[in-house]
Specification:
The complex is a heterodimer of chains A (233) and B (604). With 233 residues, chain A is of the alpha+beta class. In chain A, 19% of the residues lie in helices and 17% in strands. Chain A is built from five helices and ten strands, in the order E-E-H-E-E-E-H-H-E-E-H-E-E-E-H. In chain A, the strands form three sheets. Chain A has a five-stranded mixed β-sheet with strand order 2-1-5-3-4, with helices on both faces. In chain A, strands 6-7-10 form a three-stranded antiparallel β-sheet, with no helix packed on it. A two-stranded antiparallel ribbon of chain A has the order 8-9. The mean pLDDT of chain A is 96. Chain B has four domains: 3-62, no CATH class; 74-163, Glutaredoxin (3-Layer(aba) Sandwich), CATH 3.40.30; 184-398, Rossmann fold; 408-483, Ubiquitin-like (UB roll). In chain B, strands 6-12-11-15-13-14 form a six-stranded mixed β-sheet. Chain B has a five-stranded mixed β-sheet with strand order 2-3-1-4-5, with helices on one face. In chain B, a hairpin with a 5-residue loop joins strand 11 and strand 12 (421-426). The chains are: A alpha+beta (233), B alpha/beta (604). Chains A and B meet through helix 2 and strand 8 of A and helix 4, helix 18, helix 19 and helix 20 of B.
């Protein structure tokens, strides 16, 4: 069939369908490309850059780059692992992440990625930004200290919940996620049943009164590293 | 007040057809009328164009010239770039501070005057300069700053500050600015005389495919900096499926040290519009948009007048130059202070009334650009070149310049030289020849291509300026041996930190980290491994960033380490005390701890 595309990832031949991104084709082939902003149910964003791969020798985001016949993709090279480690480090030092008492610990994708990459401490200096929290909503809690600006909540609220509760404001290092009200989440139509509340990869957007409900040992990443669900396919 | 605000917003939005994609026009109009886009205004605008409040906030918070907090009736924006600094902007800043009794970022207690700094406003050839509302004040001094404040306190009308007018169209009734063109070398292509319609007439006598063929034969490449072959870009756009296509002109020159487009817009706008019409015919578009940087708002009336003249002459509108069925018109879209909007997909976002975030590629603008339609985006200078190629033929153009870089290039030259200004030179000219032309002496370093380009030393002054060797969108900054290259690099890094859109991690965070480490080195806290750290971090930012900004933003550091390594090494010392890293000042840390604890340390 003409819509079947064959290419390689680290020398392994992969077959995908025309219109797929590198990440989609790799997932289907059981090859894990690390990611943070990408989520299967959401439109690709291309912002975290953790999924950077080499395509015919040029860096591209696997989550947005479509596959093409004969393309040569590199995924697990020294250079790419170093780039990804740097980006994960950057996300840690950019915010204020305290894994040891975070409700999301063990279920956090940022933390799980750091473990997968063997990061014990970031190589960059902490930037200690002043970020605010929003506890006004009866059922949902925002802690911007832990936000990595992946835009999952923005996309889920807009594209799945049809609400546009969240959006980015500011630019550069001052960029942050704002809510569709003058200041408080309580003044929006956000509901605890919104998909936007489920998609946060870190502990920036949490449901109230369910923190630490899952015992240590049963959390998502307690036994297997992030990405192993894709790799076992 | 609320009634006034509500009715004014209703009027403004209705004038824009309550069209959400015209958000920039709406918020700019509200900002101009009320001095801010307040929280209440955001609600009203959102209702009026049927969008969400946070979407309006998202746009307003992105652009430097828009603000939620009220600003003074008069906003003084002092240009803050390296060239202005070299020409004495710090004493001007001090004079403004003293005379106004406020610091930068503040507004006088009576709410009349706001004092701010802003990145390069495109006046490096007449620095120090400032924008006061839309008026440009050049060749500033401390005394002038004090005089300006005294005048503004009496009469807060910046127009009345303009005394002596500049040359050429700067003195035009629709401009009346004190800006000088400083055209030092008029070349054959842009700065020679062209009759309106001379290029377009020839284009319309050909098929669109033939026009594209001529642009390809001329080997024209984009003049904005990236250097993509123009004819190829047009071909992709022409072939892309879609009935509606657009021609966008990038007049958002924001690369520090660039001002050549300012001079084209002042003196040769008609030629640029002609090039846009040629592009419209070639790709099958009926609409052109000029994205004009907010700093050049003082030129808007002149540009509108040039458009009106072309309409009256039948060079725009229906059946252009009598060509049945070819309709083309141009509108001007104002920017609002965001360097990133010079990136073509960010420019498209801004034209669509969004934050100036670049878009993911693919799809490329040629396939899916402005409002989802196939779009050509070219630089001001590129369109001028197109008009002349069509007038004189591709052979005439291709025989100028060098093999891979045909034609002429406009350079904006500033810094330590006797004759800063705009030079139209053939591609392939050597750096040394450029330095001779502009009267530079004792030159130690040249920044070619602005902060996103490269800083070169004397050993490269024999290299040619062209796409294959030293590429530039036009910025050439000259530094003599008294300048500190590390401090120049820091100034450029501050610029990128300020102007990063923040969309992707490496650019948003990486540039901050690069700048902090450079600060450490400049402040005498450099450690042995710091150059490796800067180089590896720089490599990550360049490789992983999503758009051209992040892919080039480490260049000030990367190219100065490459070409001026000894300047860094001189700053990096061995640890001051046994076992201590120079980045850590134990005495400062102890005294902080002591002040918190409220008692002296027993360790002395």
């Amino acid at each position: 069939m003409s819509n079947t595309i064959t290419f390689t990832i680290d020398g392994v031949e992969v077959t995908g369908q025309s219109g797929q991104t590198i990440m989609e084709a790799a997932d289907a082939a059981g090859i894990y490309i690390p990611r943070l902003c990408a989520l299967e149910e959401l439109a690709p964003h291309g912002s975290c850059r953790v999924c950077t791969v080499m395509v015919n020798g040029r860096p591209q985001a696997a989550c947005t780059q479509p596959i093409a016949e004969g393309m040569v993709v590199e995924n697990e090279t020294e250079q790419l692992l170093a780039i990804r480690r740097d980006i994960i480090d950057m996300l840690f030092v950019e915010g204020n992440h305290f894994c040891m008492f975070c409700e999301k610990s063990g279920n956090c994708e940022l933390q799980a990625l750091a473990y997968r990459f063997g990061i014990a401490a970031p190589r960059f200096p902490y930037l200690f930004p002043k970020r605010d929290i929003d506890a006004t909503h009866p059922d949902i809690f925002i802690d911007r200290n832990r936000c990595i600006l992946c835009g999952r909540c923005v996309r889920a609220s807009r594209d799945i919940d049809g609400k546009n509760v969240f959006e980015f404001v500011g630019r550069g290092f001052d960029k942050r996620v704002a809510v569709n009200a003058e200041a408080n989440l309580a003044d929006t139509d956000a509901a605890v049943t919104d998909e936007a509340v489920n998609v946060c990869p870190t502990g920036a957007l949490l449901k109230k009164r369910v923190g630490y409900a899952i015992p240590v040992g049963q959390r998502k990443y307690d036994h297997k590293p992030i990405g192993s669900d894709i790799e076992k396919k | 007040m609320s009634e006034t605000l509500a009715s004014a917003i209703r009027e403004i939005a209705q004038a824009c057809g309550n069209d959400r994609s015209r958000m920039m026009d709406i918020v700019e109009a509200v900002q101009a009328k009320f001095g801010c886009v307040s929280s209440e205004a955001m609600d009203l605008i959102a209702k009026q164009v049927s969008t969400h409040r946070v979407e309006v906030e998202s746009v307003v918070s992105f652009y430097a010239f828009l603000s939620e907090q009220p600003k003074g009736k008069v906003v003084i924006r002092l240009c803050d770039d390296i060239i202005d600094e070299m020409k004495g902007s710090e004493s001007v800043a001090e004079a403004f501070r003293q005379e106004l009794g406020i610091d930068f970022g503040q507004t006088t207690p009576d709410g009349v005057i706001t004092l701010e700094k802003t990145p390069c406003i495109g006046m490096c050839d007449q620095a120090p300069a400032a924008l006061i509302n839309n008026e440009v004040i050049t060749y500033l001094s401390g005394d002038m700053a004090r005089e300006i404040v005294r005048k503004l306190k009496k009469d807060p009308d910046p127009k009345k500050l303009i005394g002596r007018l500049g040359d050429g169209n700067n003195a035009h009734d629709l401009v009346r600015s004190m800006v000088h063109n400083n055209i030092r070398l008029a070349g054959e292509v842009v700065f020679s005389t062209m009759a309106s319609g001379a290029g377009l007439k020839n284009a319309l006598a050909m098929t669109p495919q033939e026009v594209i063929r001529d642009v390809k034969t001329a080997r024209l490449r984009g003049r904005g900096g990236a250097g993509f072959p123009t004819g190829m870009k047009w071909d992709f756009t022409r072939q892309a499926p879609g009935d509606k296509k657009y021609v966008l002109c990038n007049a958002d020159e924001g690369e520090p040290g660039t001002f050549k487009d300012r001079v084209i817009l002042t003196e040769k706008a008609d030629m640029m519009f002609e090039g846009m019409a040629v592009a419209g015919y070639a790709i099958g578009a009926d609409t052109g948009v000029v994205y004009l940087r907010g700093e050049y708002a003082y030129l808007r009336a002149l540009l509108e007048d040039a458009l009106a003249k072309r309409r009256n002459a039948g060079l725009l509108g229906n059946d252009v130059m009598g060509k049945k069925g070819f309709r083309f018109d141009i509108r001007i879209q104002m920017g609002a202070g965001a360097y990133i909007c010079g990136e073509e997909t960010a420019l498209i976002s801004s034209c669509e009334g969004l934050r100036g975030d670049p878009k993911n590629r693919p799809p490329f603008p040629a396939q899916k650009g402005y409002l989802g339609c196939p779009t050509v985006v070219n630089n001001v200078e590129t369109f001028c070149k197109v008009a002349r190629i069509l007038e004189h033929g591709p052979g005439w153009f291709a025989k100028m310049g060098s093999e891979g870089s045909s034609g002429t290039k406009l350079l904006s030259i500033s810094g330590d030289c006797a004759k800063p200004g705009v030079y139209e030179v053939p591609f392939g000219i050597k750096v040394r020849e450029v330095l001779d032309l502009c009267g530079a002496e004792d030159t130690a370093a040249v920044q070619v291509g602005g902060p996103s380009g490269q800083m070169i030393g004397m050993n490269q002054f024999g290299d040619p300026i062209c796409y294959e060797h030293l590429a530039t969108g036009g910025s050439v900054m000259v530094f003599n041996s008294s300048r500190d290259v590390l401090k120049i690099a820091r100034k450029f890094m501050e610029f990128f930190v300020e102007e990063s859109c923040g969309f992707c991690t490496p650019c948003r965070v990486g540039n901050v980290l690069l700048k902090e480490k450079l600060d450490d080195i400049i402040n005498g806290k450099g450690a042995a491994g710091d150059l490796d750290y800067l180089e590896s971090l720089g490599a990550t930012v360049k490789a992983a960033s999503r758009c051209g900004l992040g892919q080039t933003s480490p260049n000030p550091i990367v190219t100065t380490i490459k070409n001026f390594r000894s300047a860094y090494e001189a700053k990096i010392k061995a640890p001051a005390e046994e076992g201590l890293q120079p980045t850590f000042d134990i005495h400062a840390a102890l005294s902080t701890a002591e002040s918190i604890a409220g008692r002296k340390s027993v360790h002395t």
